Amino acid sequence: MYQRRNIEDNEPWLGEMEPFKISDNIYFVGTFQESCHIIDTGDGLVLIDSGNIFTLHMVIDHMHKIGLNPRDVKYAFYTHYHEDHTGSGNAFKHLSGCKTIISKVDEKNAYDACGFVADITVNDGDEFTLGNTTFKFIYTPGHTIGVMSVLFNTTLNGIPYTAGMFGGAGPNSLKKWHRSYYPSCLQDYLNSCDRLLKEKVDIFIGNHCWNNNTFEKARILKETGENQFLDPNEWVKFLEFCKDRAENLDQDERKPE
C-alpha cells in the first residue's frame, strides 16, 4: 500500500499517465512521479503543483488532451518548495499568465531552491474563492517547514463533497540527517497529521500518486466506471499510516538495506 516507484528525472516519459477526470471539476494532468491537478471553478482554472521542469511538457500536453487550455489557468498553487513541485513554476507562469501562490513560510525556500518567485503568499487559515470553488489553506509543516495543505468544495455527479490534499506527506525529509537544520520536523509532521485528521475529506487527492494509489484508481475508473477516489475513509487511513510510519522512522533507519 502507498508504494512509490523510482523514475529518473531525465527520463520523465517513464512516468507517463493518461489524464483523466476525478470529479465533476477535478482533473489529473500529472505524471506518476509528479501529481498535478486542475480544478475548473467555472470562472477559470486553478492548478495545484505544476511539477518538475522535466515533466512540464507532459502536463501541458495532458491539459490539451482533455480540452483544457493552459492559458485559462488563473492561479497555480504550490504545496511546498521542493523542485518536483515548483521546478516548472516560473515556466508555467510565463506560458499561462497565471498568478502563482505558495505559503509565506516557504516563499524564500522556493526561491533559494529553484528560483521560483510567487506572486501571492498564503498563511494558515487563509481562503480564496474563484467561481464556485473556495480553497482553504492549512499550514502543515514537517516535510518542509512551509507545507500548505488545501481543502476545497467539489461535486461528483452533482452531489457536493469536500476534496483535500496533504501538501507534503513524504517521510524522506524527516530522517535524522534532515533534523540537523530542521530539528522539529518530525514532531511538526506528527502534529500536522493530527490536525488534518480533524478535517472531513470525501475525495482525497494525492500530492504524489503513491499517496492515494492514483494510478490504480485511474485504471479501475477507466475499465469499470467505479470511482474509488470517492472514499470518506481513505483520508483518515492515509493520515494514520503517515503517523505510524513517522513514529517508527528511526527504527526503520536502523534496519539493514
Describe this structure in words.
It is built from ten helices and twelve strands. The protein is α/β, with parallel strands linked by helices and 257 residues long. The chain has a seven-stranded mixed sheet with strand order 1-2-3-4-5-6-7. It has a five-stranded mixed sheet with strand order 8-9-10-11-12, with no helix packed on it. Strand 8 and strand 9 form a beta hairpin. Helix 6 (185-196) runs antiparallel to helix 9 (234-247). The radius of gyration is 17 Å and the shape is globular. 46% of the residues are buried.
In what order do the strands lie side by side in the largest sheet? 1-2-3-4-5-6-7
CA-to-CA gap between the ends?
A: 20 Å
H/E element string?
Answer: EEEEHEHHEHEEEEEHHEHHHH
Please give the number of β-strands. 12
Structural class: alpha/beta
- On the 0 to 100 scale, the average pLDDT is 93
What portion of residues is helical?
25-40%
User: Beta-strand level of the residues, as a percent range?
Assistant: 15-25%
What is the tally of helical segments?
A: 10
The 3D shape can be described as globular
Q: Round the Cα radius of gyration to an integer and report it.
A: 17 Å
Report on the biggest sheet: 7 strands, mixed
Please specify the SSE layout and strand pairing.
Layout: E1 20-21, E2 26-28, E3 37-40, E4 45-48, H1 56-65, E5 73-77, H2 83-86, H3 89-96, E6 99-103, H4 107-114, E7 120-122, E8 127-130, E9 133-139, E10 148-156, E11 159-165, H5 176-179, H6 185-196, E12 203-204, H7 209-212, H8 214-224, H9 234-247, H10 249-253
Parallel strand pairs: 4-5, 5-6, 6-7, 11-12
Antiparallel strand pairs: 1-2, 2-3, 3-4, 8-9, 9-10, 10-11
